[in-house]
Amino acid sequence: MDPHMDHPIVDCDVHVYPRDPEELQKYLPLPWKHWYRGESRPFYQSKPPLHGSRQDAFAPGGGRPGTDPDTLRRQLIDQYGIRHAILLPRVFANMYPDPDYATALARAFNDWLADTWLTAYNADGCFRGSLNVAQQDPHAAAAEIERIGGHEYMVQVMVDSGARAPFGQRQYHPIYEQCEKLGLPFAIHPGTDGAGINAAPTPGYPTHLVEWHTLLSLGFQAHLVSFITEGVFERYPGLTVVLVEGGVAWLAPLIWRLTDHWRSMRTEVPWMDKPPLHYLHRNVRLTTQPMENPDDPAHLAALLRSIAAHRVLMYSSDYPHFDFDSPTVIARHLPADMHEAAFPANAARLYPPPPPPPTGGGRVPPPPPPACTACPFPPPPPVTGTVPPGSTVAADDNPTLTRERAADTLDTVLAVWEPEIPYRLVGTAAALLQGVALPVRDIDILCRKRETVDQFAAAMAEFRALQEPAWLAGDRQYYCNYDVAGVEVGASTVEIDVPHNTAETLGAGPWVSA
């Protein structure tokens, strides 16, 4: 074990490869068998004197790094006390224009990984696998997850960050539905941005590897904003997205910027009824490598603490690549009070030990993260029950609303309140009443002034108060909440300086025509 670490470690990014193309070709059917010549990108490759992998990681006899389990165990597992290594094979399947070949290639890698690193080389259960899918055909990808996702050592689904559309868009929903059904995280790893059929995250194509590699985080930012704003985490609340090898320091400014825009433009995304930081803490995890290294470590620490990043960070080494980060290196850069969460705890919750096979098949979703005293948004309540395909989970005491029940509840509220001042219904309830099929568990009414919230609270005195009117500093809103026949109905202001009046703070709500 690393002498600087006093607890076992989960490494969330370890790369393994077939010994040669022929080893993988055994798993490819005709006509694809002879198409495969080894995984690679057509450009943005390391060039001498640079090397893509550690030069001490070659296997005895000259095998490429990441192909020999004994070498990997000696240099990583034994040297640093790694309890579990999450293996991410580099397939690059999503850069191919032929979705059938891409799907066959991903399937071959999954079977190869299951037979070798997860079985023949895994007597102690140290290795956990990531199953690859080709998102070009989301239905075929979902079928592949269903086929092999129940393997006891397959712990997540993975794709490259290169894509033709941001990952929050609805064509990818079959993949997320299957991930949630089996309790498998969805991991994104860089590697095919701007390669093959995939769009580049930059305006045009960079000239050099140093440019391309520096800007890989742009694709991660686009995907994360898409996941949040497209409502993926409302439709699939049990889904966890893992951003692997995309950097860390960009996260805080991105969440700040998205939060500001959400406050002023939230009528455009009514299903997004919680601040971006809520979805980040509940549904997203980031691996540490490559962690930015400012001249003053306090600068990075301040960024991380500003968004309670200890709730989302998980250690990763990127073995056997040239920019490998040992636990010792990360421990020097990461604030000490985040070590326990980042090294074993967050990953141990997300990738629990293989349980006995559930009677219904699939995996048990991981528990929610612990409450964070530095964050104003508590984790969501625990959920129970079985989740049928295509549905979502709701707390037993706060069921998903139908359109009819939402309308009836609003009729009850307005009959008591009789507002004569501007207000607006916002969030998922507004979308539901406009005919958008979304899971809705509460009703949110936005008011322009605190006095209006107080008037609402006075009118609702006959109902049980869940939250008396109060100023929520972290949320920048004056808020109250009531139980109306089993439905939570809240009223609030949103008080933040913006350069214009937003439409959602004016006029009657869109539900009145329902």
Structure summary:
With 514 residues, the protein is of the alpha/beta class.
Instruction: Please tell me the overall pLDDT.
Output: 84
Order the strands across the largest sheet as they lie in space. 1-2-3-4-5-6-7-8
Radius of gyration using CA atoms only: 24 Å
Principal-axis shape equals elongated
Topology, number of strands: 13
**Percentage of residues in DSSP E strands:** 5-15%
What is the N-to-C order of secondary-structure elements (H for helix, E for strand)?
A: EHHEHEHEHEHHHEHHEHEHHHEHEHEEE
- Structural class, please? alpha/beta
Low-confidence stretches: 356-398, 498-514
Q: Report the end-to-end length measured between terminal Cα atoms.
A: 63 Å
Q: Please estimate the helix content.
A: 25-40%
Largest sheet: 8 strands, parallel
**Total count of helical runs of at least 4 residues:** 16
Describe the structure.
The chain is α/β, with parallel strands linked by helices. Helices cover 32% and strands 14% of the residues. The strands form two sheets. The chain has an eight-stranded parallel beta sheet with strand order 1-2-3-4-5-6-7-8. The longest helix is centred in the first third of the chain and has 22 residues.
Topology readout:
Layout lengths: L8 E6 L6 H5 L43 H12 L1 E6 L11 H22 L6 E6 L5 H11 L5 E7 L12 H10 L3 E4 L19 H6 L2 H13 L2 H4 L5 E3 L7 H15 L10 H8 E4 L9 H10 L6 E2 L12 H7 L5 H12 L52 H15 L5 E4 H7 L8 E6 L2 H10 L4 E9 L4 E8 L2 E6 L22
Parallel strand pairs: 1-2, 2-3, 3-4, 4-5, 5-6, 6-7, 7-8, 10-13
Antiparallel strand pairs: 9-10, 11-12, 12-13
Helix pairs in contact: 3-4, 4-5
